[in-house]
Amino acid sequence: MSLDLRFAVSCSSNMNRSMEAHAMLHKKGFKVRSFGTGDKVKLPGPGPDKPNCYEFGTSYDYIYKDLLNKDKALYTQNGLLHMLDRNRRIKDGPERFQECSEKFDIILTCEEKVYDQVLEFLECHIPEENNPVHIINIDIQDNHEEATIGAFMICELALLLSSTDDLDNDIDELLHEFENKCQRNILHCVQFY
Description:
Helices cover 44% and strands 22% of the residues. It has helices at residues 17-27, 60-77, 80-88, 112-123, 144-162, 167-182; strands spanning 6-11, 31-36, 41-47, 50-54, 106-109, 132-138, 186-192. The chain has a 5-stranded mixed sheet, with helices on both faces. It has a two-stranded antiparallel ribbon with strand order 3-4.
């Protein structure tokens, strides 16, 4: 089994789904980073039309304290303070995928829109080294329970992909096997760095 693969996990805001998976993959010893692909970090606010918006790079600690000051009861009840507390123990703040120059072997996305944004970003760059990167999407709803379930699935997939000595040759069969087991549609594409 190879834990040498470099993984990226991305959702829209680098808050819930990608961070839950980041935490689990890191605990299992994988080389992993997590990202968002949106224009801003958006978190639920006091009403559906009043989200809390932050720039990528704003620290999780700052966001935690900001929400704590705005409405401790609301953000404790809806789980945001707990989530932010977890996040700030993993890394400083949310990162935007499009601002990262690091190269990965596998990029796992948590929704089709994020998958499309990752592909669009990678397609804008001319490959220099012709090293493949596998972009894989598993749709995960953006709530705490589904993020936890999704993190287990992503971890299981990472273990499966790490078990082969020839990822590029075996990945289609491995993804088909995983798709049948988890009963979720998987999107897969290869791009090059």
